[in-house]
Amino acid sequence: MNLTEGQQKPLILGIGNLLMGDEGVGVAAISYLEEMGFADHAELVDGGTSGFHLLGLFRHQQHLILVDAATDGKPLGTVSLIRPRYANDFPPTLTAHDIGLKDLIESAALLGYWPEVDLITVSIGDLGLMTMVLSPAVAAALPKIARVIKNCLNKTGHATDDSGAVQLTVGPCGHK
User: Fold this and answer.
1) 40 touches 8 (CB < 8 A)
2) Is the terminal CB of the chain with fewer CB neighbours within 10 Å at N or C?
């Protein structure tokens, strides 16, 4: 990848608790993206349920892609993209962690660490199930998450095509 001086890789941050099945889809997405070679084009971080410990990651970021589960009532495995401009643009249906993602973003904004943010949510169901396995519907969303992230990276010139080459295209972030 040819980054210009001062340019950095976008940060892809997966949030979630792997011990709670589908609630850990953000972390599972990071593992999937590593397997697919995305680490060559973005910094991949398993944020787990770290909360405020993640705040330092935002300090010098220009582009942040967040992946988290949402209890939004949509069918299981629905992948949605939100481009929040302000902390209050984050949906209230993000799943609960020690410190909520919305709290983390509000703190980053207060400190002046507000990068361009693409929030990818995956619809899940009941949070009560303790398992380390994603449901079939949520597991099937992993390739969809990768496609949405690829489109988000395309707009900054960091995405790969299927051969692994850097693909510089301009277009809206989203999925088709």
Assistant:
1) no
2) C
Residue with tokens 């303790």: 130
Interatomic CA distance for residues 69 and 58, integer angstroms: 20
pLDDT in tens, 43-101: 998 877 666 667 777 777 778 898 999 888 899 999 999 887 766 677 766 655 545 66
**Interacting residues of 10 by C-beta distance below 8 A, sequence separation 6+:** 41, 42, 43, 61, 62, 63, 64, 65, 152, 153, 156, 158
Residue 5 lies in a domain: no
Which residues pair with residue 176 across a beta bridge? none
Q: Answer whether residue 3 is part of any domain.
A: no
DSSP summary character for residue 127: S
